[in-house]
Amino acid sequence: MSILLAVLIGWLFAVGVYLVLQRALSRIVLGVGLLGHASVLLLLAEGGRAGEPPIVSKDGVPAGIAAPLPQALALTAIVIGFAMIGFLLALAYRSFVWTRSDEVEDDLEDARIREMVADEEGHYRASTALDAEGPIRPEDQP
Amino acid sequence: MRLLALPVIIPLFGAALCLLGTRWLAAQRAIGLLATSSALVAAIGILVEVEADGVQALDVGAWPAPVGITLVGDLAASMFLTMSLAVILLVQLFAIGQEADRVRPAIAHPVYLVLTAGVSLSFLTGDLFNLFVAFEVMLISSYVLITLGAGRDQIRAGMTYVVINVVASTMLLTTVGLIYGATGTVNMADLVEKFAELPESTRTVLGLLLLAVFSTKAAVFPFFSWLPDSYPAAPVAVTAVFAGLLTKIGVYTMIRSTSILGLEQLSDTILVAAGVTMVIGGIGAVAQDDIKRILSFHIISQVGYMVMGLGLYTVAGLSAAVLYIVHQIPVKTVLFLVGGLVERTTGTNALHSLGGLLRRAPVIAALFAIPALSLAGMPPFSGFLAKLAVVRAGIGAEHYLVVAASLGAAILTLLSMNKIWAGVFWGKPGEPVIDTLREPEDGSAPGRLRPPTLMTWATAAMVVLTLVVPVFGGQVHDLSVRAAEDLIDPSAYVEAVLGPETAEGQP
Q1: Which of A42, A83, A91 sits opposite B159 (nearest CB)?
Q2: What count of other Cβ atoms lies within 10 Å of the Cβ of residue B14?
Q3: Between chain A and chain B, how many beta carbons pairs sit less than 8 Å apart?
Q4: CA separation (Å) from B234 to A92, B100, B132?
Q5: A117: contact with B, CB 8 A cutoff
Q6: Cα Rg of chain B, angstroms
Q7: Which chain B positions have a beta carbon within 8 Å of A104's beta carbon?
Q8: Which of B136, B375, B471, B502 has CA 20 to 30 A from A19's CA?
């Protein structure tokens, strides 16, 4: 494979990883897409030089055919990747509908445990978001 | 050996049939149960056949290996497959009893069956790229199940789970591409010979990449943090299946790739990772306040034990790992199911709100006590056998530091189990938490003290399943030793796939 292709694949991986590490969900989806493109390009590059279409005729295997296996792997990977991105986009949209923002939220239980150390009175607080709103008890009612 | 294709094909056909009957819930349930039970029968048939005749292989589409894709059943894969399908069937019964499939009836059963097909294919495939496809089938069904009818919490947790797993899958694809580029094949049996011809540095790099990917799936240190963030928020039956199966499939693929690619030089790295995983899982479990979170950290800790068995890379170590996986699949699942029963009975999962269930719901207490003692390693349950096997293998291989770490982690596991027991079952009975602001995720009436009968029976059946291992301990141990011998020396595997002529030149 040429140097240009190798550098390009590495660059796509780098940009993809950078995007996946962002907070904004739309950027994460873009990053996942780029990572998929990079891996597909890597598969194609592993196939070696371009050649004749890999079709076996009555006379046997023609000389100099392109390697068929990486093409099959790449096609499968492209289809799987596109389905994954579709699902991620739907998930990102559903998250946007609930939170009206584009960001990945912190895990609430981790945040609670961090705060437990800081709370001097030692009160035990509600554990998950579900309990954060608390059960309605008669004595709580105004 | 056409039975090998059935655990994959039957659930897929079942999913297709389920999609035809989208409004008719009774038909979907019937088709779903029929599909998983027939797949289970096929898996038992495979196990009997492999135990009698050795490794079995099937060339899909009659394309000869290594050109075509091969389905291979060896002893380890068949044991795991049978246990997994039994667990899948029982969780399906639990979910039907819970009425959880009313959330999105058109999707819940078909996607669950596709998950089953993905799980079967992951265990049975003999081709590295087909393993990637099987993982994707399994994972995308899991993404759908974890976010089905989701509220805000599930979307947040589901997002973490999906992104981490998609990145790991991309890395698996990359590694498979690199292995293909280095050796010219992706067939596992063919790789046994061709991978050994590569230079040492290439083998180490490719092995590390592959192990890193499978460690992410298995939640081994340092790739574990997605698990406690995402599992507790999912619906009960979904978490139960994931906890019991998906991480164990990650460990199985670690074992398989170490066996196929001959990665002994990485076994010390694996041991260190295993030791840290066990301890971190134990410490994390003790710090939590929520039942499901404690159990999620336990998953991580127990995965450390299995990977420790792998890292020792002796027959004793690998057989301990196999025995541990067979023990762990039902035990972990049933603990989550009992957590679901508790949540159904009282309306909450938080330890500080619960109490006194021992008197109000003694059946649930008994159903919790047996697997909890098993997980903590108390005799005469399966956890004791598995932990004993791992510790003996560690002492036999003279890795005393890891053995000390494993015993420390066992104490921490016992401590966190006591925390659940004391918090949920002892103490003054609290009032059922009636959360009128939000309905429980499974759509039931909150705070009812008696869960539906089917849920309790499914849980009880799975507790009985966990008792199978200690009752038949001798036979299971013999099977796992034979499985380990096949894993350390894959020539029987290669011979079954590629034919006897090729196997003669094996080292």
Answers
A1: A91
A2: 26
A3: 124
A4: 17, 12, 24
A5: no
A6: 22
A7: 156, 159-160, 163
A8: B136
Six-digit token pair at A51?
Answer: 């050649």
Token look-up 């790992």 returns B321
Q: How far is CA B448 from CA A127, B434, B436, B458, B483, in A?
A: 22, 9, 13, 19, 46
b/e string for B374-399 if b means 16 or more Cβ within 10 A? bbbbeeebbbbbbbebbbebbeebeb
Of the candidates B326, B334, B89, B102, the residue with the CA atom closest to the CA atom of residue B236: B334
The phi and psi torsions of A56 (rounded to 5 degrees) equal: -90, 125
Q: Do A129 and B153 lie within an 8 Å CB cutoff? A: yes
Q: How confident is the model at residue A34 (pLDDT cuts 50, 70, 90)?
A: very high
B296 CA to chain A: closest CA distance, Å? 13
* Percentage of chain B exceeding pLDDT 70: 94
| Residue B426 DSSP label | S
CA A15 to chain centre: 13
pLDDT digit string (tens) for B226-275? Answer: 888 888 888 888 889 998 899 999 999 999 999 988 888 888 889 999 99
Summarize the confidence of residues A85-92 as an average pLDDT.
90
Distance to chain B for A37, nearest Cα, Å:
10
Cβ count within 10 A of residue B279: 18
DSSP state for residue B398 in the 8-state scheme: T
Identify the bridge partners of residue B73 per DSSP, sorted by sequence position: B56
Asked if residue B66 has a cis previous peptide bond (ω within 30° of 0), the answer is yes
Q: Is there a contact between A46 and B186 if contact means CB atoms under 8 Å apart?
A: no
- Name the DSSP class of A87: H
Residues 6+ apart with CB under 8 A from B429: B355, B356, B357, B359, B360
Q: Is A34 on the interface with B (CB under 8 A)?
A: no
Whole-number Å distance between alpha carbons of B297 and B31:
35
Is B507's pLDDT higher than 50? Answer: no
3-state SS of B234-265 is CCHHHHHHHHHHHHHHHHHHHHHHHHHHCCHH
C-beta atoms surrounding B46 within 10 Å: 25
pTM above 0.95, yes or no: no
Interface confidence (ipTM) of the complex? 0.84
* Alpha-helix runs per DSSP H in chain A: 3-20, 25-46, 68-99, 108-118, 129-132
**B92 close to B260: Cβ distance less than 8 angstroms:** no
Q: What is the DSSP letter of B127?
A: B
Most distant CA atoms of chain B, gap in Å: 71
A25:B159 CB<8 A: yes
**Exposed/middle/buried for residue A51 (C-beta within 10 Å: 0-12, 13-18, 19+):** middle
Q: Is A109 on the interface with B (CB under 8 A)?
A: yes
Taking only the tens place, the pLDDT of each residue in B452-462 is 788 888 889 99
Structure tokens given for A45: 């590059």
- Maximal CA-CA distance, chain A: 90
Residue A140: per-residue pLDDT:
46
Unique residue bearing structure tokens 């694996």: B270
**Cβ of A94 under 8 Å from any chain B Cβ?**
yes
